[in-house]
Amino acid sequence: MAAIAVLTLLMVPAAPASADPGRPSTHGPSSALPPVNGQWDKPGPFQVATKGEADTTLYYPRDIATSEYRHPVIIWGNGTFAFPLIYDGLLRHWASHGFVVAAANTPFSNTGLEMRAGIDLLAKANAQSGSPFHGRIDLGHIGAAGHSQGGAGAINAAMDPRVTTTVPIQPGPLALPSSVRSPALYLAGQKDMVVFPALVQLLYDRTTQVPAVYAELAGAGHLTAIGNAGGFRGLTTAWLRFHLLGDEQARGVFFGSACGICSGSTWPNVKRNAKALQIPGSTSQRATG
């Protein structure tokens, strides 16, 4: 039943406000979390805990109350008729890498407002003495991610100036790419018969104001993103680690002349817009010209 439910696409969105398209790309760590040596598809170094808070499910490092780090945030939007439990493997995976994931407890996250509520929740907890999250949340590095309707929600949530990168996975069409204010990774499934790759490419094509990358996963259908997200898991983790943690090992996966996903059979269709092409590759790439 859950799998069937995810197939139904998004319904009525509220129209997001216009956004400043001139925000520059920023990346770099504010919290020196442990490296993972390029093993982005493998579990990270943190044990994971979950808890329900108001209209949000939180996934976070279990020892966050005593952590020596400040942990970046990912706000998450589900597909239509889906809830965080359907994406439990992926959300736990990100938390194991040190992120605090605030997943909206709604099957209708198209407006992005439900997702943005997670930022407000964590900002309050970060400032609240006695909260396990007190002083442990890095509110300067926040990613918006989601699947299907939630992917459109992630795009719409990116109008919030607190969002510093966006990862729409197979996003539905009711989204305003002009609202994206920070680097974006658009992901499509080669065999997705619900959200066709051409639709995702159209959203990517309309995102010219910030660095944007489009990548199409070979053989992936619309349900590939549920559970632990399969082939999407490692790439999304690399992108989030680079943009929210400044993980330099992940830079070369997306940027520079030797872009790691720009050749091979796993990602047969990759596009990078003019602003993304301006981002330099890894140090070794730059050293060799």
From TrEMBL:
Its EC number is 3.1.1.101. InterPro entries: AB_hydrolase_fold, PET_hydrolase/cutinase-like. Its main location: periplasm. Keywords: Periplasm, Signal. It is found in: Periplasm. Residues 18-44 are annotated as: Disordered. Residues 50-248 form the PET hydrolase/cutinase-like domain. Pfam families: PETase (PF12740). Coiled coil: none annotated. It catalyses: (ethylene terephthalate)(n) + H2O = (ethylene terephthalate)(n-1) + 4-[(2-hydroxyethoxy)carbonyl]benzoate + H(+); a butanoate ester + H2O = an aliphatic alcohol + butanoate + H(+). The keyword tRNA processing does not apply. Residues 1-19 form the signal peptide. This is poly(ethylene terephthalate) hydrolase.
